[in-house]
Structures are given as structure tokens and as C-alpha cells.
Amino acid sequence: MNGYAQNKDDVLKRLRRVEGQVRGIERMVESDKYCIDVLTQVSAATKALESVALSLLADHLSHCVAAAVGEGGSVAAQKIHEANEAIARLVRS
Questions:
Q1: Which helix (H) or strand (E) is 63 found in, with range?
Q2: What SS3 class is residue 33?
């Protein structure tokens, strides 16, 4: 089971909202809207995606990583390494 299973509907709803934002940005570009207005909307969509990512990461840590730590050994080490890599990707983006 995925760590976000209990929040799946919320995650999907948030992703659909982001998808709508991106489509709105596309329409803005097609309509030759002012650059700064487009950039403002890109920033908002980026923040919304970051929020989804942080929510998924929190679910992963509290479910998948916590369960692996309970098992201990190489499974725990692997999940912790995996979480560290995911966090690093988020920080770099």
C-alpha cells in the first residue's frame, strides 16, 4: 500500500487543480498576456506542485519509512536512503 493511500483523493484533487492552472497559463500565452502575469501564474502552479510533493513526502516518511525502520536492517537503510534522495531532488528543483 502507498503511503498516500489515505489521502489519495486529496492528492488527485490538488493535482487536477494544478492541471487547470497550467491550462490557464497556456491560454494566457495563446492570448499574448503580459509576461509578468504569466510568470506570476507559473510561480503559483510551481508552489502548488511543491505543496503536493511535500504532502507525498510526509506520507512516505510516516508510512513507508516508519514501517521499514520498524523492520530494521537493510530494508530500513534502503528506505532512508531513498527518502534522502527524494528530499535532495526536491531541494534542487
A1: none
A2: coil
CA distance 50 to 47: 5
Contact (Cβ atoms closer than 8 angstroms) between residue 41 and residue 28: yes
38 φ, ψ (degrees, to nearest 5): -65, -45
* Amino acid letter, residue 1: M
Mind listing the pLDDT tens digit for each residue in 25-70? 999 999 999 999 999 999 999 999 999 999 999 999 999 999 999 9
| DSSP type of residue 4 | T
Q: In angstroms, rounded to a whole number, what is the distance separating the alpha carbons of residues 6 and 22?
A: 26
Please state, in angstroms and rounded to a whole number, the distance separating the CA atoms of residues 20 and 45. Answer: 9
Rounded to two decimals, what is the model's pTM?
0.85
CB 46 within 8 A of CB 93: no
Distance separating alpha carbons of residues 82 and 86, to the nearest angstrom: 6
Nearest-Å Rg of the Cα atoms of the chain is 17
Place of cell 521499514: 68
